[in-house]
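User: Run a structure prediction on this.
Assistant: Running it now.
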Amino acid sequence: MTQRADIVSVARGYKGTPFHHRGRLPGGALDCVGVLICAAREVGIFSTGFDVPAYGPNPDGTMITLCDRYMGRRVTQSTMQIGDAIALKSDLEKYARHLGIIADYTYGGFSIIHASNDRLHMRVIEHRILFSRHFRFAGAWSFPGIA
């Protein structure tokens, strides 16, 4: 059975991969959904051909619907663990717009591994999770079959 540390380790290997909407090529191009899908494929949670239906770059509620359909069970912010997927939104948005994988922060607490599309970090990065008005919890899921 896949361990939580396995998916975190694989996702950390993607750090530095350039951001590209709907990217599914570790080391070449990934978006936030691609980080989750490619890591889950690599550890055997999803089949190598698995993907989700096309989605646009603007938040419209699709992200939560897709996570509910394809991910494992939903978890709360207080029960999320390393190796879980997290959806985020800002105070200005009605719907979640971003996904990442929860990891263990070097100095305690959680970090997030995700494909950032802001002008300064157009790549897969990892940093401590600091919730703010731009980075609000919108949902979290345990990957199917993860221990």
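The mean pLDDT is 93.
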